[in-house]
Structures are given as C-alpha cells and as structure tokens.
Amino acid sequence: MHTMWKGTISFGLVNIPVKMHAATENKDISLRQLHKECQTPINYQKTCPVCEREVKNDEIVKAYEYVKNKFVILEEDDLKAIQREQTDKAVEIIDFVKLEEIDPIYFDKSYYLSPNEGGLKAYGLLRQALHETGKIGVAKMMIRSKARLAVIRVYENTIVVETIHYPDEVRQVADVPNVPEAVETVKKELDTAKLLIDQLTTTFDPEKYQDEYRHALIRLIEEKKEKKDVTTTTKAPTPDNVTDLMEVLQASLEKARKEKTKPRQPKRKTAKKKTAE
User: Fold this and answer.
1) How far apart are CA 138 and CA 121, in angstroms?
2) Is a pLDDT exceeding 70 seen at residue 88?
3) What is the spatial distance between Cα 18 and Cα 112, in angstroms, rounded to a whole number?
4) Which residues 6+ apart lie within 8 Å of 223 measured at CB?
5) DSSP 122
6) Which helix (H) or strand (E) element contains residue 31?
C-alpha cells in the first residue's frame, strides 16, 4: 500500500511516528472522448478568448472572483505567506469525544495510519486506549498545504484518520427549500411504515451492496472486446519537424531565386604585363 504521507500523531506529550495510506479508492470507469469522424482522442487546451491563442502555464495567475468579472489576483508569494510550512506533518489531537456525537454529514475522506519506525508501542497504546474508552480524537492536520480538521478512531485493528468538514462548510438546513416544519400523519399509516422498517432491518454487511452500474459497464466493455467491436486510434501527426524542414527548404529556394535574378557584374579585365625583351 502506497505511503502518501509521513508524520506524527501527538496527544499530550506522546508523539507517535506514523505513515498515512489512502483507505478508499475511486472505482469509477473512466471514459475518453473521441472524435467521431476519425476516432482520435480529443485534446483540451487552455485558451484565452480575448487574445485568441493557447495560454501556457507560466502565463496563468490565480485570482478570486468576488463579483461578476471582478477579480483579486493572488500571487504565489501571497499564498505562500499565509500557508503553514508543508514540512509540518503533525496530527495534533486537541479533544476526545464520542463518535456518535458527530453527524455523518461532517465526514469527508478516510486514511489508514500505520506505525513508522520507533512508533509500534505508542501506536498500540493509542489504539487500545481509544478502543477501551470508546472515544475518538478530534485533531488538526496539514494535507497538501491545507489545514484540515480530522478525527482519529479505530477501524477493526487499525487507526484511521478521517478528515471532516469545518462547521461553516456544512450548509444550513434552514436554507433547504420546501421542507415542512411538521406534517400531520395518520396513526395507521405510521404504524405500517414502522412495521415495514422492522421487517427490513438487518445487520449491516457492506459486501451486500455493489455498484451495479459499474459492473454492468465492465461487462459491456468486455463483451465488445470479445466481439472485436473496438477501434484503434492513429497517432496524431507531428508536423513540427516537417514544418521546420519545409520552411528551411522554402527559404533556401527563395534565396536561390534572388541570387539567380541578380544582375551579373562584368568581370574586370586585368592588364597583361609586358615582358622584357
């Protein structure tokens, strides 16, 4: 499993060297877009609609659009000045709470933590303490130069760090349109709904749930491959060298034409030397 981050977990005076690994992976099937006429993959270029040309990366600056068509330009030095150093790889636990006190809407991404060199004993200590107390740690950490809020908890026998949203990143439910404050329900209908819930209640088994669309898409792709219903794209021509050669040849031809049309200068006659008799 690829190590994407190395640092420490700290709580109180305890520091645990750890490695971080992605706990989940995106299994979506990535589809490319081809030109229907020649079956060539489509390229996307960064262009400026005003200058009407492609823009290189070193010509691009970052900016914040505070109102329509009004921007504040932010230079790289400006951004670096307000960022903490990337070398700060500490996960600092600031509080311990119960997991059920955090609504799932706050959770973002999950990462596994494994002990780094010298951290085996402290790793085991924190894991057992979290397990026996039933608590999770609320921590601050840096990921890709961004300060994140996270929780530290135990999943099976592994310590997991899960990034969570800050409160102001979760939209207010009061802003959701057309949500009624209260709805009068009929007791018989409510009892029937509760009975249905009881009948469908079971123990959560994650293996039971599958991405049916992804599996169907994989089957469709494999069927088309078996039927040879495939296309091979040709490599787009690279005219750079040819263009350069043609330019050189054209320039040479023009030069030769000019030389040919130049009026010839008459040769100067040289006087013959008299020989002594």
Assistant:
1) 21
2) no
3) 10
4) none
5) H
6) none
